[in-house]
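Lab notebook, bench 4. Still working through the backlog of constructs that have no structural model yet. Next entry is a single chain of 544 residues. Request: give me the structure tokens for it.
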Amino acid sequence: MSSRFFVRYIGRSGIYTLLPYLIVACGGGSNPGTNPPDQDPPPLAADQAQTSEGVYQGSVEGNLLVFRGVRYAAAPVGDLRFKAPAPPATFAGTADATQFESKCIQSSDTGPIGEEDCLFLNIWSHNDDIERPVLVFLHGGFRNGAGGDLATTDGARLAENSDIVVVTLNRRLGVFGGLALDELLQENPRSTAGNYAVLDVIAALAWLKDNLAAFNGDPNRVLLAGESAGAFALCHIVAAPEAAGLISAAAIQSGNCSRRTRLSESVSMATFFDTALNLHRPILVTTGCDVAADILQCLRDLPTADLLTAEQLINANTGRNIFGPIVDGVVVVSDPHTALMAETIGSIPIIVGATADEGANGQSGTPPANDFVYRARLTAIFDSPGGDQIYALYPTASFPSVADAWITFWSDWIINCEAEELARSASGNTPAYLYTFSRGFSTGSLAGLGAVHAIDVPFLFETYDVFGHTPDADDALVTDAMQNAWAGLASDPTAAPPYLPAVASSWPPFDINNVQLVNFDAAVTVDLVHREGRCSSLRDIILL
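Model written out:
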């Protein structure tokens, strides 16, 4: 039996099928004779993989083996809507894995996109028998085409350049991934509701743990990375005990994962269970299911378009997406800071950071029109005297415009200082590697906007062409540095990740008494000051 055949054949159930052959091969058993021909599994081609459920047919693309649209959980439809993911069914024959399957159902500016039957993942592996570390990436966004099939996160260049296996996946989004109601809690033996998207990711990681060997991936060296909404999901996965043992490192990119206090009640967060139960309740009236004899059956019978419409109305009324991960005390047992300090899923090192101009491309909403509106907005958001204290730290007189003051404050508050705070929380127990990403595009659709939200993703995946950007030598250096660091931590989570390929560069871990961070810019450097030192003051004012 060849090593390629063995690696690609063995799976969660395949080990039991192969056990008699292994005993014979090792000299054991009472009958060392030849196995009956009809018991031999059929040989697999190089572009096929035997998983727990059946054989998938991928494609050879250059030096890579690529498998798209591999199912990791059953379709979450019908009675499985608003429930934890169920295992996928086994199948006979060979399943095609050469094309992406549907992304998860979501709203968009032009109407619904995707399907509920969407729990698939995609794998960029290598056409040989060498076991490699794995990077699993969680996409950002929850509407307008978000999914594991994004061209921005095509894993080919990252996998080949960094000599790793790359995985992207779909998870349920919006109301389908997060609805929490008392009725759902009551039917659940675990006495909780919501967090279906978090459970989707955990199910995908568990599937990978069982099956990565079939794709030449090392199930014990898995770095889970996520950007924006994907980072937000990741922040809750580090607080989910069921994820213990499924990842060895994490990379949280531009994640709003805060445990902020001193927020005004008018903008209370939906990340806590009781708050989410109250904020989600209006969906029953919006859909008409409040008067149904069986509320849950009514919700599960609704067309997806009706649920999306209800989601949009409720989000519009609250001013944000309220159907995200929540701290329910069961699936997600705490906020991410507490989880990192308590090592809820083990002692895993993290890379954490954000782009320098997070709020510059509309992420911060409409900037206030003048100083009066700016001050009034701060007062509305924070309990007294928080608004006045923040204005003193970010006065309009210190910035080119009122808009610049607001965008800088928003970028610090929502994401950049949150990254520093996550590094602070983790660093007491396990290494945390803080970064800021300062490189923008000089050509293409994002030219001149600076280091805007999510621009680090095409640098990591080397997918500049999606935005019409032609990279120069400095861009290539940033990509090399990011790929070296992310792949380095995936390869050896016990060592500081290298970032500059041409020199022996080890990323200094975060130290609350001696802040050091990597700045990904035209020159990749180690900086000694983060966000001009404002995060410490912001922590004292609003208890980040």
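Notes after review: Confidence is low (pLDDT under 50) at residues 1-36. The chain has two domains: 44-259+265-318, 349-542. Flag for follow-up if needed.
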